[in-house]
Amino acid sequence: MVKVTKVDLSPRPVEAMSPRQLERRRNLIAAALSLVTEIGVERLQMRQVSERSGVALGTTYRYFSSKDHLLAAAIAEWHRSLLTDLVSEGRGRRAGPSASDRMVRFVRHGMRAYQRQPELARLRVSVAASTDPFASEALQAMARADGAALLAVMVEVPPSAGDVVRHIVGHAWQGELTAWVTGRTTLDDARRRLEDVVRLVLTPYEAADPAA
Amino acid sequence: MVKVTKVDLSPRPVEAMSPRQLERRRNLIAAALSLVTEIGVERLQMRQVSERSGVALGTTYRYFSSKDHLLAAAIAEWHRSLLTDLVSEGRGRRAGPSASDRMVRFVRHGMRAYQRQPELARLRVSVAASTDPFASEALQAMARADGAALLAVMVEVPPSAGDVVRHIVGHAWQGELTAWVTGRTTLDDARRRLEDVVRLVLTPYEAADPAA
DNA sequence: GTCCGATCTGTAACGTGTTCTTGTTCCCAT
DNA sequence: ATGGGAACAAGAACACGTTACAGATCGGAC
Questions:
Q1: Whole-angstrom Cα distance, residue A6 to residue A3?
Q2: Considering the entire predicted model, what is its pTM?
Q3: Are residues A110 and A89 in contact, defined by beta-carbon separation less than 8 angstroms?
Q4: Fewer beta carbons within 10 angstroms: which end of chain A, N or C?
Q5: Angstrom distance, A18 CA to C26 C1'
Q6: To 10 degrees, the CA torsion angle through B174, B175, B176, B179?
Q7: In strand D, which positions have an atom below 7 A from any protein CB?
Q8: What DSSP state is assigned to residue A65?
Q9: With bands split at pLDDT 50, 70 and 90, how would you rate the model's confidence at B94?
C-alpha cells in the first residue's frame, strides 16, 4: 500500500516543544554559531552542524526548514544579545549627549562588534536575502528588535519621524555591512558613512536639546 | 607527464573579447534574463542557460566565474536600462517641482518597474549579497550608475550632503525591495516607506527652491 | 595551405543541501 | 506493563552548481 499523505515536515513552533526538543534546538544553533565563527559561513556544512550538535542530519530539518532558517535563527540570536549589550551600555552613561551623539555611539559600537566577529557579519549578510518563510520570520524578528533598540536611543525624536529614521538607519546599517563583507568598501568607510547617515538624519532634532 | 600549471579559468575582461565572444556573452546574459522572467530566479539552472544560449556549460564559466556573477551582470544590465529610462523620462518634464518631488517620482517609477517584473526584483535581491568578487564588481558598477542617476535628479542639493543622501536612498531602496520580495512587507508599504525616506531626507533642501 | 595553441563542445564526475527509507527509541493512554 | 504512533538516527539517494577531461574547431604565424 502506498502512503499517500506525507507527514508534515515543516518545523513545529518553538513554544510547542518539549524540553528535550528545546535542548536539541539550542544545540543546533550553538553548533552553527561556533562553526561559523571557526570556519566561516561559506565553509559550514549541515553535516558538520549535525555532527557537532549530536542531532541526526534528517532531524535538523524537522527543527529548521533549511540551512537559511538555521542560520537566520543563529544570527538573530547573536544579534539580539548584541543589542541588549549595546542598549544597557548606553544606559549606564551620564545624560547630556544629544540623540545624534548617542545614536552615533550606538552604531559605532555595533559596527565594532561585527568587526570583532567578521564571520558573523558575513553570516548576517548572507542570510538577509533569504526567501525561506521561516528564515524571513526570524529576520523580521531581528529587525523588530533592532527598531526597538534604536527607538530607545532616540527618545526625543517625535514618533512620526522616528519610524522613518529607524528604517533609514536600519537599511543603511545593513547596506554598509553588506558593502563591507562583499569587499565593495572598507570597514572604515562603511563605519564613517553609517555615522554620517545617522548625523544627517538626526541633526534636525538637535535644537530641542538645550545642553551645552 | 603531469600538467602542473592549470590554465587560468577566471573570466577575461570584456574589453579583451573578440566579436564572437562578445556575442556569446550577450547570449548568456539574454538567456539568463529571459529564463528568470519566465520561471523565476530560484528555479533557474545553469544547464538551462547553457542550453538556451547555445554555449556549452563549461564555457559559461569562462565568461562568468559563477552563477552569481552571471546573474549580477544580468540584473546590472537590466537595471542600467531602467535607470536611463527613468532619467530621460524625468528630463522631459517641465521644470518647477522641487528636488524632493522629483526624487519621489523617480523612486516611485522605479518601484513600479520592479513591480511589473517581480522576478527581476527577486533577482536583484538574491544577488545583492554575493561574495563572488566578479559579481561584486558588477554590483558596484550598478551602485555607481544608481548614484549618478540620483545625483542627476537632485542637482540643487549641495555635493557634501548629496553623497550621504544618495547612500541613504540607495540603501533604503535596496532594503525595502528586499523586505518586499522576501515577504516581510507589502509592496505598497515598501513604496510608501521609501517615499517617506526620500521626503524626510530631502525636505531640508526645499527652502532653496523658490518655485510655486 | 599547414601547423599550433587557445578556445569551445559535450559529457562525466564531484560536493553539498535536501529528501527518502528503514529500523530504533521515546512517550503516553490504557 | 504494554501497545502504538510520533520522533529520531543512520545512511543512501537525489538535485544542481561547479570542475575535469577528451576530442573538435577556430584563428593567427609561417
A1: 7
A2: 0.91
A3: no
A4: N
A5: 12
A6: 120
A7: 7-12, 16-22, 26-28
A8: S
A9: low
Determine contact: A126 vs chain B, CB below 8 A. Answer: yes
Show Cβ contacts of residue A191 under 8 Å, excluding neighbours closer than 6 positions.
A108, A111, A176
Structure confidence at residue A2 (pLDDT): 42
Q: Which residue would you say has higher pLDDT here, A168 or A87?
A: A168
The x, y and z cell numbers of residue A41, run together, are 559561513
Mean pLDDT of chain B: 90
**Are residues A165 and A154 in contact, defined by beta-carbon separation less than 8 angstroms?**
yes
Pick from B93, B99, B91: nearest CA to B207: B99
Could you tell me where the DSSP H helices lie in A54-158?
A: 57-63, 67-91, 99-116, 118-127, 133-153
Which chain B residues are closer than 8 Å to A130 by Cβ?
Answer: 182
Output the nine-digit C-alpha cell for B133. Answer: 568578487
- pLDDT tens for residues B14-56? 888 888 889 999 999 999 999 999 999 999 999 999 999 999 9
The amino acid that residue A18 corresponds to is S
